[in-house]
Design a protein that fits this description.
single chain; mainly alpha
Length: 67
């Protein structure tokens, strides 16, 4: 690996992982929304009420924001 490549990876590694995590989250949420819409023919936006407690639990367990 060249020095330029190594610096790019160390400088942008966390950003790349954050982008992958966001993409995976959207990849998981989208089929749920489309399945509910396809079966019920109603756009159900209550998924946010389900994901919000899960996000709070994840932040509490992982100690989000604390260093």
């Amino acid at each position: 690996m060249t020095a330029l490549t190594a610096n790019f990876i160390t400088d942008n590694g966390v950003t790349m992982i954050d982008g992958l995590a966001t993409g995976v989250l959207l990849f998981v949420i989208a089929p749920g929304l489309s399945l509910v819409f396809g079966v019920m023919d109603v756009l159900n936006l209550a998924h946010g009420a389900i994901y919000l407690p899960g996000a709070y639990v994840a932040v509490a367990l992982l100690g989000g924001g604390r260093r």
